[in-house]
Structure formats: C-alpha cells, structure tokens
Design a protein that fits this description.
- It is a single chain.
- The protein is of the alpha/beta class and about 450 residues long.
- The chain has 4 domains: about 150 residues, Alpha-D-Glucose-1,6-Bisphosphate, Chain A, domain 3, CATH 3.40.120.10; about 100 residues, Alpha-D-Glucose-1,6-Bisphosphate, subunit A, domain 3 (Alpha-D-Glucose-1,6-Bisphosphate, Chain A, domain 3, 3-Layer(aba) Sandwich), CATH 3.40.120.10; about 100 residues, Alpha-D-Glucose-1,6-Bisphosphate, subunit A, domain 3 (Alpha-D-Glucose-1,6-Bisphosphate, Chain A, domain 3, 3-Layer(aba) Sandwich), CATH 3.40.120; about 80 residues, TATA-Binding Protein (2-Layer Sandwich).
- Helix content is about 35%, strand content about 25%.
- Strands 1, 2, 3, 4, 5, 6 and 7 form a 7-stranded mixed beta sheet that branches. Strands 17, 18, 19, 20, 21 and 22 form a 6-stranded antiparallel beta sheet that branches.
- A hairpin with a 5-residue loop joins strand 21 and strand 22.
- Helix 1 crosses helix 4 and helix 8 packs across helix 11.
- The longest helix has 15 residues.
- The termini are far apart.
- InterPro entries: A-D-PHexomutase_a/b/a-I, A-D-PHexomutase_a/b/a-I/II/III, A-D-PHexomutase_a/b/a-II, A-D-PHexomutase_a/b/a-III, A-D-PHexomutase_C, A-D-PHexomutase_C_sf, Alpha-D-phosphohexomutase_SF.
- Keywords: Isomerase, Magnesium, Metal-binding, Phosphoprotein.
- Its cofactor is Mg(2+).
- It comes from Streptomyces purpureus.
Length: about 450
C-alpha cells in the first residue's frame, strides 16, 4: 500500500487530499478494517456534498459488506444526522466529510454504536494498523453483507424537535448561512412547521465552496451573514460549518454571539429540565459558563479542549450538556454527541419564548471581555511556553495549571496558551473583567510568545 497513513489518520478522524493522499481503493480497506475492529455485523454510512464523497463512501461500504457486515447507506447528511442514525439504530457509523477544509480534502469520522467516538485511543490506531498490514483487499467473508439505502432526514428532524419545545415560539425572522454545506440539506426539514420566516443563504450543496469557506469561527466567513441580518431586519442569524455539526450565532444587530454565551444559555435551559445536572465545559470557555451553571443549580466540570475529552467526561459524569468555545455543543439526550442544530433550536426557543431581542437575552451570559483565539507561529513551542510561565508564576495572587497547555489565573483575568498538535503554533485565549485589562494581558503574553531573542 503506497499511501502514508501517518499523514491522514489524525487524532479523531481520517482526513487528507483526494486522490493524492487517499482514494476509493483505500476507503474500501478502511471499510473492511472498521468492521474487523468494531466487530460489527451491521453499520451505517453517510456523506456530505463534496464531489468525492459518494465514491469514497460507496467504496467504504463495499469493503465493509465484503467482510460480512450489512450496510445502511443514509446518503447526503450532516455529521450529527449520522450520529442520530448510529444512536437510533444502535449501529457503528462512518461519516464522509472534511468539515470546513477546502474542496480537495475529504475524511471519515467514525463512531461505535450509540455514536460513541472512535479516536486514536478508541479504535482508530487499530484500524490504521490493520489497513497498513494489507497489501490488497483482505479475504472476503463466506457470506457477504448487504448494502441498502434509507432516508433518515425526517426522523432526525423529528427527534431534535422532540427535545426542545419550539412549537409555541413567537414568529421570528432568521437568516441562515449554510456556506454551501450540509445545513442547506437539513435546515429546511428541521425548521419546517416552525413560526420562522427563513431567509436562506448559500443553501445550494456545493463542495467547492464558491462563496466562502464553511468555517463560521473565522470572522471573514460570517461577514455576508452579518450584512444580511441587518439588511433584513432579522431577529438573528445562524451559520453552519461544512458538515453542519457546528453552529455560530449573530444577534439582531449582526454582532457575533460568543459560543461561550450560547453554552451558558443552553446549559441553563438543560438544567431547568435536569435539575442539579452536570455541565462539561472546556478550559477556554468564559468564566461566565461555570458561573451560570452554579447559579442554575448545576455542577460545572472543566476539561481539556477537544471533542474526545468532552465526550469522555460526558460519559464518566453522566453530564446533561457540554459546550466548547469552538461552537461544538454536546447533549446527553443526543447520545453525548455534538449537534449544532439542537443548540440552534435552543436559541430559537429561548428567543421566541420572550419578547426582547437576542442581544438583551444573551447579555446576562456574556459577562467578560475576551480576546478570542489568537495563533502565533513559533520556532520552539516549549521554549516560548516556558518563557511565558516564568514571567507570570512568581506574581502575587496568580495560580497556574497545566491541564491543557498553560493556564494562568488571577482574580480579574486569566489566559490559556496551548500548543497545536499539528502545526508550529501557540494558541492564546485571554479573558478579563474589562477590556482594558484583557488587552494588557493579551499584549503582554503575545510579546513574550513572539519575542525574537
């Protein structure tokens, strides 16, 4: 096998350029290995709108079926729709997507039955080893599995709407930017029958992303949405990423709403349903999140950045909800998996259940001044991290922890500095009680990170 799997098998998924780094014959081997490692006699497979997705997912299905597994193909879907199918059918699943990566990329997000994640420590490394061991397709099973098709979109939409009461909301005008991704496929069905005046943007499924990158966390990719919300006089705007598992919100002024504020808002709503429940948040979410959780009678649990850590803590603690500052939102009622669509329905229910604008609604959940994530390219991550630590660890009233990178906390501010696992970058997030303090801390840390000595 000529492909270098070390380049495409990541911590949580498979991802690379097609056909340069991987292709349909390799996808077929991944399908066979997936069946061997999970021990599955049946699986479910879905794909996004990328040009290479139908061929790759079909090859994966053939590889799985050749090993004796029955394959249910659900076709075009969002990643959380695949998780729904895995959870509701009780089957392992594979989703073909590269999320917001450029058109030439594709990937596979895999899960066990009930949407339990498959990552490096939970099966992905074994799948890679098995694929590397095969020079060609492995010996087929005595009885091959079947490949059938099934549409799950309406069942997925009905399940989401069974978890949030959106039937009685006041009429709202909402602009949705699907970024030519899978939101254009799922939103019309999920929003059907709701008191919403839907203004669609870029709903045409197009894996070449002709309008903008389908990554709403990058400010340049929500400029069109912001302008349209203002022009339409809409109540809010929603932006989905390429595989529509993340959702980003802008208010009636076209201003971005912090994902931490959305995490706090949804946490309060979930705690109203599940009093005393546990809420997971990663360590770069705002101080607002654990504050709101405690005020709402819940138990906040802080974890590392990354969906595998969130899902592990969700399962360990029985948490009802988890949120990340990257706009991933996880729900116990959704098999601990992440679904931006369910978070969006919570925002619509909260906004539509009262008369004020969204900016007022989220103000109580957005209490601090934040820097957002700032990336710096460095020659030596370890040395730069050490320099920052040395500059702060002797100061009065400062505490330091290393749960994920370096977190420095003082009474009125905190910052986290984390190395990227895949690039020569350090990622800074800072927050303070006021803008002046945040700016000063942010700039001091950046000067140390970017020092040239």
């Amino acid at each position: 096998m000529a492909a270098d799997l070390s380049q495409i098998v990541k911590a949580y998924d498979v991802r690379g350029v097609v056909p340069d780094q991987w292709d349909e014959p390799l996808a077929e081997l991944f399908g066979a290995a997936f069946v061997h490692v999970t021990g599955a006699d049946a699986i479910v497979v879905g794909h996004d709108m990328r040009p290479s997705s139908p061929g790759l997912s079909g090859a994966f299905a053939r590889g799985a079926a050749a090993q004796g597994a029955d394959v249910t193909m659900i076709g075009l879907c969002s990643t959380d729709q695949l998780y729904f199918a895995s959870g509701s059918f009780g089957l392992p699943g594979a989703m073909f997507t590269a999320s917001h990566n450029p058109a030439q990329y594709n990937g596979i997000k895999m899960c066990r039955a009930g949407a339990a994640p498959v990552g490096q420590d939970s099966g992905l490394s074994e799948i890679r080893t098995l694929v590397e061991s095969w020079a060609s397709a492995p010996e087929p099973a005595a009885t091959p599995g079947t490949i059938t098709e099934r549409d799950t979109l309406r069942d997925y939409a009905a399940h989401l709407k069974s978890l949030v009461d959106v039937a009685s909301i006041r009429p709202l005008k909402v602009v949705v930017d699907a970024g030519n991704g899978m939101g254009g496929h799922t939103v019309p069905t999920v929003f059907e029958g709701l008191a919403l005046d839907l203004v669609p943007m870029f709903f045409e499924l197009d894996g070449t992303f002709p309008n903008h990158e389908a990554n709403p966390l990058d400010p340049k990719n929500i400029v069109d949405l912001q302008a349209r919300v203002r022009a339409e006089g809409a109540d809010l705007g929603l932006a989905f990423d390429g595989d529509a598992d993340r959702c980003f919100v802008v208010d009636e002024r076209g201003e971005p709403v912090s994902p931490s504020a959305i995490t706090a808002l949804v946490a309060a709503r979930e705690l109203a349903k599940h009093p005393g429940g546990t809420i997971i948040h990663n360590l770069i979410t705002s101080w607002s999140v654990p504050e709101v959780v405690r005020e709402s009678g819940g138990v906040p649990v802080r974890t590392r950045v990354g969906h595998s850590f969130i899902k592990e803590e969700m399962a360990r603690t029985g948490a009802v909800f988890g949120g990340e500052h990257s706009a991933h939102y996880y729900f116990r009622d959704f098999w601990n998996a992440d679904t931006g669509m369910l978070a969006a329905l919570h925002v619509l229910a909260a906004l539509g259940g009262q008369e004020g604008p969204l900016s007022e609604l989220v103000a109580s959940y957005d209490r601090y001044a934040a820097s957002g994530e700032i990336n710096s390219t460095v020659d030596d991550q370890t040395a730069r991290m050490a320099a920052v630590r040395a500059a702060f660890e002797t100061r009065d009233g400062v505490s330091i922890d290393t749960l994920d990178g370096l977190t420095v906390t003082a009474p009125t501010w905190w910052f986290n500095l984390r190395p990227s696992n895949t690039e020569p970058l350090l990622r800074l997030n800072a927050e303070a009680q006021d803008e002046t303090t945040m700016t000063a801390i942010r700039d001091e840390v950046l000067s140390l990170v970017r020092a040239t000595d």
